[in-house]
Amino acid sequence: CLSKSPENAEQSMSSTNDADPPTQPDKEAESNNQPALLDTVAKRNNNSAHPDTSTYVKPTDKGLFYNFDSFIPDRYKYNLMYCLIHRVYHIASSFNIFNEDLQVLRTKFLKNGFPSGLFDNTVNKFLNKQYLPDEKRCTVPKRRVTMTLPYLGPLSIVIRRRLRRLIGKFYPLIELNIIFKRGRTIKSIFSYKDKFPLRCRSRVVYYIQCEACGPSAAYVGKTVNTLYERFYGSNGHLHPSTRSSALLEHLGQEVDPKCEFNPENIKVLDTCSGDLQLRYAESIHLKHSKQTLNTQERSIPLHIVRLLYFTYSLFEH
Question: How far apart are CA 263 and CA 200, in angstroms?
Answer without folding.
Answer: 11
